[in-house]
Amino acid sequence: MENPCPEDPRPAPETLPASLRMNGAERVLALVGPDDSAQNVVRHAAQLADALRTPLVALHVEHGDDARVQAALDLALQLGGTVVSLTARDMARAVLDYAAANTVTHIVMGRVQARWWPGRKLSKALTRQATAFSLHLLPLPAATPPRPATPLHQDVWEPYLLASLLLCGVTLIGYAAQAYIPQEAMGLVFTGLIAAMASRSGRNAGLFTAGLGFLLWNFFFLPPVETFSVSDPRNVAALLVFLLVGLLTGQLAGRVQQEAATAGARVEALRRISAFSQRFSRAATLSDVLRGAAEEAASVTGAGIVLMLSGTGLEPEACIPEATMLDEVAEAAAEWCASHDVETGTGTSTLASVGWRFLPLHANGKVVGVLGTRPKTVPPPLAQTLATLAGQTSMAVERARMTMQTARAQAQEDSQKLRNALLSSLSHDLRTPLTAIRGAAETLEQAGPALDTATRADLLASISQNTALMTKFLANIMDMARVEAGSITVKRERLRLDALIEAAIARVQGAEYTSVNIAPDASHALADPTLLEQTVVNILENAVKYAPAGSRMTVTATRQGDNVRLAVADEGVGIPQAELGAVFDSFFRATRGDRVAPGTGLGLAIAKAFTEAMDGRISAQSPRPDLPADGLPGTIITVELPAA
Questions:
Q1: Fewest beta carbons less than 10 Å away: which of 210, 351, 435, 637?
Q2: How far apart are CA 351 and CA 328, in angstroms?
Q3: At what angle do helices 91-101 and 122-129 cross, to 10 degrees?
Q4: Cα 106 from Cα 95, distance rounded (Å)
Q5: What's the CA gap between 147 and 35, in Å, rounded?
């Protein structure tokens, strides 16, 4: 929310106490722990950093997952700070090392987390080992809300039940075989069992095993047996050593197990981050990106949904499972996430009672949508994974939108080029027939009665020929417009190729003596009669245009598997190798020496479009392999269609 007051409420740097004046490289560190004062620590540190105009860093040294930690870290991000999570056995040393490496001059922490090891205070450790910073201890909250009681499920008691059964079993075996197993050896067996339980089920299970093992060893194996009294002073020392070793073993093994679990969670997070990157790099469209984000979110938490901003608000674009729906409370949380650019829902400080967690998606510096997940709990590794997924999704959305904008710009540029080429073709290729028609018409108008019959006939023939030429130009342009608009309707019929080819030859002036050779097994094709005839006409007109007068042209049809290959061969000037790949492009006209052939350059482009509309293929070959090397190279245009 914007401050209605134009004045800056923060004190100017020169008004601050000398002890608080810092340069731009200094930082304020909020030490976040798993306690109820974590968010107060972050708020106080943010106020201090704002007053000092220095960066804020929220540091969490992991010793277990707690939703209050993640809520405080989220709050630090919302307040413009940086979040750092470390895994370390010595919390004080980790804090000091980070503070020294990052020029931290103020550390803010709560009194609730002051004890970090039995008998030791973190605040004392920090002040005793370093003097390069100011330590701020916040008072306890006036009214700390009670923590909700954890329901006692069967799986909570399972480690303790297993430890009890194992201890009882070992005790029975050792008691039955005490004539063969020394009492000192049973202490070692109990110690190994303590380490095993701590490694398997954590620190608390190890400490429970140590305490119960201490009692069982004393009662059943140290004289006097079946009592808790000890007669030999050496056994007292052994008991104390056993208890100390058991407690330390349980503590250390539990810590190793916890750190291994944390490391495993981080490895899994890195694996998922790598999978996110690879999947989004392969996404070709915006819909692919959104679908992939929803599927990845569902794979992490069980359900995922992507909502994108539209003119009327958030609209669901992808959801996994397909029937996933948001209730009114969840929709309100998603709207708040999009409008305020903050994470909301489970595990955050905003609408934490919602069963969903929503993360904003950005493109071009603005919120364009929301990624929603439905996790049961949000431990720090999962929260970091979701934040990374949201970040990867945001980058992929921005990349997809930029690609779409580039494609639209390219399409507009291509359309403009097409219009320019069309206007250029009309201006050049229609100018000659129009000039001839106008000249002949003016001659007939001005000197008609004085002209003899033969001259008038020649002028009328010129008008007719040039009108037909203009009609052909305009017909090609209209056909190409139909192709570009996608308005071609294809009728697939069983056609006799000989009749269709003869009809096409009759329409092309100069192709009257074209030879036709159709194989018996290639007499019929599955195609549209109108489109195929026009395709053959365009190919023949191209051959006539580039072949010398009186040269031979051949149309052959052969069978190739399930297709019919229709080839039109000429003995013309051929197509240069450098231009062979572009011969079917719109408005392309091959150069022949120092001249360019007349025409719109649409004939073969239309032939290609019609052929592909009929599920066929068209290709060009030049020079012809069957012509002598000392003559003209010639060209073969081949159309391949399904056989009927």
A1: 435
A2: 13
A3: 40
A4: 12
A5: 10
For the CA atoms of the chain, what is the radius of gyration?
Answer: 43
Angle between helix 203-221 and 233-282 (nearest 10):
160
3-state SS, residue 378: coil
pLDDT confidence of residue 636? 92
Task: Give the Cα separation of 550 and 406 in Å (integer).
Answer: 51
For residues 469 and 436, give the distance between their C-alpha atoms in angstroms, rounded to a whole number. Answer: 11
Is 214 within 8 Å of 246 (Cβ atoms)?
A: yes
Which of 184, 208, 206 is CA-nearest to residue 196? Answer: 206
Residue 433, preceding bond cis, omega within 30 degrees? no
The reported pLDDT for the residue numbered 231 is 67
Dihedrals φ, ψ of 110, to 5°?
-100, 155
User: What is the three-class DSSP state of 284?
Assistant: coil
Give CA angle at 289 (284, 293), nearest 5°.
155
DSSP string, 401-466: HHHHHHHHHHHHHHHHHHHHHHHHHHHHHTHHHHHHHHHHHHHHHHHTTTS-HHHHHHHHHHHHHH
The answer to whether 488 and 613 have CB atoms below 8 angstroms apart is yes
Question: What was the pLDDT predicted at 98?
Answer: 86
Q: What separation, in Å, do the N-terminal and C-terminal C-alpha atoms of the chain show?
A: 72
Residue in the structure block whose two tokens are 């969490």: 60
Q: Which helix (H) or strand (E) holds 291?
A: helix 286-301
> Do residues 344 and 351 lie in contact, with contact meaning Cβ atoms separated by under 8 Å?
yes
Question: Residues near 346 by Cβ (< 8 Å), separated by ≥ 6?
Answer: 352, 354, 355, 356, 357, 375, 377, 378
pLDDT for position 152: 40
- Beta carbons of 377 and 67 less than 8 angstroms apart: yes
Which of these, 340, 397, 366, lies nearest to 358 by C-alpha position? 340
CA angle at residue 74 from 71 to 77, to 5 degrees? 155
Consecutive H or E run containing 394: helix 380-429
The whole-number pLDDT of residue 253 equals: 67
- CB-based contact 80:107 (threshold 8 Å): no
Token code pair at residue 317: 């674009």
At 579, list the tokens: 């231009």
* Residue ranges for the chain with pLDDT beneath 50: 1-24, 64-65, 114-119, 142-154, 593-596
Could you tell me the two tokens for 234?
């050496």
**pLDDT tens-digit readout, 249-268:** 767 766 776 677 677 666 76
| Closest by CA position to 372, among listed 305, 295, 319, 324 | 305
Please name the helix (run of DSSP H) or strand (run of DSSP E) that holds residue 315, with its range, or none.
strand 313-320
Task: Retrieve residue 232's tokens.
Answer: 């030999």
Length of the chain: 644
Among candidates 269, 248, 247, 271, which has minimal Cα distance to 87?
269
Helix/strand/coil for 92? helix
> Which alpha helices (H) appear in 60-153, and where do they start and end?
67-78, 91-101, 122-129
pLDDT at residue 557 in the model = 94
